[in-house]
């Protein structure tokens, strides 16, 4: 899992977690430029690497591999290698990954609410 800060979680946070600890943990597992879009795409079912890459406008193989490895390490997805020639690999959400989908839906609703009237334009770099 990516760390919240260079030193990670403090031992006292792990022993006696607070609400902010849980918030930061959730932020940490979702952190990554492409993870939200990967989660959304995999919500439709298992997908092969190339399908994910094409969905993300041909994101580089290295960047996608890094995000998928982190998501696998965090238990958000399962990588399945099918013994075929050539190898067939697919990715799907785990229960832990599916538990994030309502958060994505709330983020969409927030974005829809707060981008009415062009208020989003100040956040877009041209």
From TrEMBL:
Record-linked SUPFAM superfamilies: Winged helix' DNA-binding domain (SSF46785)
PROSITE patterns (UniProt xref): HTH_HXLR
Keywords of the record: DNA-binding, Transcription, Transcription regulation
Highest taxon in the source lineage: Bacteria
Protein's UniProt keywords contain Ubl conjugation: no
CDD domains reported in the protein's UniProt record: HTH_ARSR
HTH hxlR-type domain location: 5-119
Molecular function as annotated in GO: DNA binding
Coiled coil segments of this chain: none
Source species of the chain: Streptococcus chenjunshii
Protein name per UniProt: Transcriptional regulator
DNA-binding recorded as keyword: yes
Family matches, as Gene3D superfamilies: Winged helix-like DNA-binding domain superfamily/Winged helix DNA-binding domain
């Amino acid at each position: 899992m990516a760390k919240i800060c260079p030193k990670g979680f403090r031992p006292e946070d792990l022993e006696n977690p607070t609400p902010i600890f849980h918030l930061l943990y959730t932020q940490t597992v979702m952190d990554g430029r492409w993870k939200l879009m990967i989660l959304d795409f995999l919500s439709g079912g298992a997908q092969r690497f190339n399908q994910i890459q094409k969905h993300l406008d041909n994101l580089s193989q290295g960047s996608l591999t890094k995000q998928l490895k982190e998501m696998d390490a965090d238990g958000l997805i399962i990588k399945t290698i099918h013994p075929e020639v050539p190898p067939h690999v697919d990715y799907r959400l785990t229960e832990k990954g599916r538990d994030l989908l309502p958060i994505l839906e709330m983020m969409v609703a927030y974005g829809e609410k707060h981008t009415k009237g062009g208020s989003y334009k100040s956040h877009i770099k041209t």
